[in-house]
Amino acid sequence: MQPPKCLHRNLHDISISWEEIKEFGSYEDSSKVYQLQINNEVKQWTTIYCGKNTLFKVDSLAPCRSYSFRIRIKSQESDWVYFKAATVDPGPYTSVIHMTRAIKLGNTSNIRKIAQISSVFLLKCS
């Protein structure tokens, strides 16, 4: 099974699509059930979809965040295929907000990460 593809993403949703697995000589294709899981906030795998479709929209997600997923053919107890997808950044000021928060907390490692990932313009107040 190939890793799924992210067809569309926005602030709170990710649409995921995967290829249907066809097995030659098998009449059980119509009974194939896919199981999609997300790694939640407490690092536990939670089933978010179980069905025959090869497209699923994951909603109610936080913006500007990467998520870990895994998928398998549940009806055949196949191996898991792991992949990642992310929601989009809500705008150009998100990095500035995160940078301000990191500076206030004195978190130099986060300041470095934000500066490397995003184009942040620091303005000198006079």
Kindly summarize this structure in a few lines.
The chain is built from two helices and seven strands; from the N terminus they run βββββββαα.
What does this structure look like?
With 126 residues, the chain is an alpha+beta fold. It has two domains: 5-86, Immunoglobulin-like (Sandwich), CATH 2.60.40; 91-126. The protein has helices spanning 94-105, 108-117; strands at 5-9, 14-17, 34-39, 45-51, 55-58, 66-73, 81-86. A four-stranded antiparallel β-sheet has the order 4-3-6-7, with no helix packed on it. Helix 1 (94-105) packs antiparallel against helix 2. It is elongated, with a radius of gyration of 20 Å. The termini are far apart.
Keywords for this structure?
alpha+beta; three-stranded antiparallel beta sheet; 2 helices; 7 strands; 17% helix; disordered C terminus
